[in-house]
Amino acid sequence: MQVVSTIAEFRAARRGFPDLGLVPTMGFLHAGHLSLVERARIECGAVAVSIFVNPTQFGPNEDLARYPRSLSRDLDLLREAGTALVFTPTPAEIYPSGFTSRVEVGPIGEVLEGAIRPGHFSGVATVVSKLFNIVQPSRAYFGQKDAQQCAVIRRFVRDLDVPVEVVVVPTMRDPDGLAMSSRNSYLTDGQRAQAPVLYRALSAGQDAFQAGETDAARLCLAVRGVLATEPDLTVDYVSVADATTLEELQRADRPAVMSVAVRLGRTRLIDNVLLDPLIS
């Protein structure tokens, strides 16, 4: 496994791999990340992983400074997983002095997470665009847990004719249903015990959908009813939106994503499930 921190070093190392999959991460890896690495290694033969806590996707009052980091642990995990290349740039390497360009993704980045975190998805799209240009992967792998991020990346790849196939891998969950996330490390023991309510709530909505309910407002009420059983939660949103455009739906009569965002203490948690009338 080669570990490099500059663009020039990465491009030199990249020449040895005709087909390369990319897994972009912010580090503090868990089994969900490693499932992406495994999928990329199987499908592409070789996989590159980027570890970069991207400052441009954090707002001024968000958790950039305290975001969990453990590079040596991450490298051990990636080595064991058969990773070929690891790119660990500094912010100055990605955003050198005088850097001013940004990728704007339009309405798809302004709803849900984008409404609460203005500019977040421009930061995501900009850094992912840079990583695609640096790595030149044939495929890039992302987790379904970050459903809006996946939709945003698919949109700019399509709109800008980026020659990368975006592969979305199902969410990895702990045995109690909590979606794996680096930010779960923020939770106290008590909060961790409450956090699986997100998936229980989404499952209640999904069960209602599979039983024939398509009214989006009623589906959201089913989700909110379960979330309300944990009074320490503050709900930011419950949504049933078109799976491609993220426009809110009145009826789930087409492929949709049902998503939630809550606050538990100082920690913000998101999760989602897919609703597809063709397979319900």
Automatic annotation (TrEMBL):
InterPro entries registered for this protein in UniProt: Pantoate_ligase, Pantoate_ligase_C, Rossmann-like_a/b/a_fold
Recorded metabolic or biological pathway in which this protein acts: Cofactor biosynthesis; (R)-pantothenate biosynthesis; (R)-pantothenate from (R)-pantoate and beta-alanine: step 1/1
Top EC class for this record: ligase
CDD domains, alphabetized: PanC
Keywords: ATP-binding, Cytoplasm, Ligase, Nucleotide-binding, Pantothenate biosynthesis
Function: Catalyzes the condensation of pantoate with beta-alanine in an ATP-dependent reaction via a pantoyl-adenylate intermediate.
Other comment: The reaction proceeds by a bi uni uni bi ping pong mechanism.
Name the UniProt record assigns to this protein: Pantothenate synthetase
Species whose genome carries this gene: Lichenicola cladoniae
